[in-house]
Request: fold
Amino acid sequence: MKPVILWSDALIFLLVAALVLFFWRLRRDPQTRDRWRQVFASRLGMAAFTVILAYVGVALLDSLHFRRALPPPDGVSTGEVFYDNQVSSVLDTLTAGMGERFERTYSAPFALRSFEKQTLKDEAGNTVRDFPPLRHAGAQLADPTEKWADVVRRSAPALGGGLALAVLLILPQWWLLRGSSLPWASSWLVQGILACTAVWLVSISRHYHVLGTDLGGADVLYQSLKGVRTGVLIGALSTLIMLPIAVTLGVCAGYFKGWVDDAVQYLYTTLSSIPGILLIAAAVLLFQVYIDLNPDAFPTGLEKADAKFIALCFILGVTSWSTLCRLIRAETLKISQLGYVQAAHAFGVSHGRILLRHILPNTVHIILITFVLDFSALVLAEAVLSYIGVGVDPSMGSWGNMINGARSELSREPAIWWTLSGAFLFMFLLVLSANLFADLVRDAFDPRTRLGPEAA
Amino acid sequence: MFAYIIRRLLYAIPILIGVNLLTFVLFFVVNSPDDMAVSQLGAKYVTPEAIENWKAKNGYDKPLFYNAGADGLETVTETIFFAKSVRLFAFDFGRSESGRDISTDVRRRMGPSLAVVLPTFLVGIGVNICVALMVVMFHASRLDRAAVIVFVALMSISYLFYIIGGQYLVAKTWRLVPISGFLSGAEVWKFLLLPVLVGVVAGIGAGARWYRTLFLEEANQDYVRTARAKGCSELAVLFRHILPNALIPILTGVVVLVPMLFMGSLLIESFFGIPGLGSYMLDAINAQDFAIVRSMVFIGSILYIVGLILTDISYTWADPRVRLS
Reply:
């Protein structure tokens, strides 16, 4: 096994490490602790946070990439080890080959036969047009009518395994958090449901395509799972990438005033007056041209897709940058009039120190609120951008690409609804939990922030 | 007031120059005319002559910023920057890469765009205010809490789902209206019904939630308590006291969006086959027709600035305490 580290993998782990470090340092601050307690005191907040964590977990598992070592070719016994060209992730291993069971084309959820007719030869050698049986669904069945009984029979041990996993997950938490007054029970309930569903899905999809297959015959459930990484990363990385620029410029504009303020204001008014979708489209198209002209910089298709993805995150960050910058500038203007900043001036503290020690920490709540509020909007935007054709690379699994590929298939007879349903369902769950959580965070940290209808 | 507007308009000029420079850098410096020729011609037909021919045909055979070969004023005017970017200020958009006149196209496509977006906008505001008022009437009850969660859930559904679901349900299953298309006659309402419906429904979650917070902010004011104390009925409080006062923030929040209506709606237009400005942009992006994209960026930024100025004016109009200076 040989690990492969993509740029986006490195960035997402960096982000998670930064967040953990941030909360570790904040844990001693009584005011912040109180506010977080307020967020988690609500059962809804606890449940939403658990769902978000589950999504982030899947995304992280899918970000651990490696290339499998291949068995040495026959008759060759060099010390050299050969690696698979295909890059896999830990998630691929955990889902037990769900992504490797391809069919020819569309098939409905739990179907045993393909969606489209094909010319076949029956036992007598005659040519008939019929729906061919699927390669990887229900092969163990002697009689197709026993399908549902078989599903039920297989569900029982799977759910048992899920419950065992849930108990393993929850017991240590219960032991550690005995005295806590927060509603952990709702988190455990969600964890239990998620664990059972996950184990059930993985074990049933060994024998059936739970959400059917798409045009290329790939398992829709697997594709939806692959979309999790893209969705989570685009929501998190876009904000991360633009954060340093927005914060630096916003704080400087509010603190130094004068020409610095004018320049920063000019910059963000100019950028925000360009219609976002056109700026994104232009930048993505230009980056595509750059990749086409410099093929040497990105040797593999995966690296190409990854570079495109990071460019997309960057440009999404640039378009959403002005709101945060404006908010931070206003807050800094307010703070720099306060007594303790004036006192710091009087003591002769340098500008850099005042900015770092006295002003920046007091704008953290704005950064936090923007981060959680933007997250869901960015996940939704990804789908729209992929539809327009300026989203993530088609080779990279994403909900937007799934929707884009299947949007006209509802008009077929019978309609092909499962690809769309899979993508929309996974996206909806993530965005809903993120929105609910964002609401609670905003209420706790800054009840007065108000956003217009266009912000959503 | 008048002086203020003049000053704001003057302030818009450097911003427009900035937008222009930025798009110019994006389109011509990062992506040089040679690259454009290569991608338009296709890799198969690339020869140095073909590139020169393409550049000459489309007017890209000049220097970017400064023409040392010309004399007098022409050192500046005989450049790509002057020919392609500065002329936008005179609303002279030139021709698209496929040879059509952009100004004519924009004028022709504005009508269908407005025919969809304007009803969506107006009906949407009406529906959202009604829903929000109903929820505010039951404030702090179980119904209110449930409604907020429903709003958040509606917000969390992708816009694409509303469109695809609407087309499937209303047009395909119930066969009430055509799935997509557009007419220029009186029969056009058939084609507009579904896009408007989808647009309104998709906006309820975010819109009604926003109006609810605005109403609640007013409901906590002292004058509302006074009105209740003097014996006003709940309905009178809601409609005579809360609603008119909440209209001020609603108006100022909504006015900024009005000019942008001219840009049409990208997704609705492309899904429903409406020949408006939104689908124009989308087609231009897909065909990599940068002349159109550049013009639309310019129009969009003008409309954005107009929106900001209108917002300031609407403040004074809705609230006489505000004075612009």
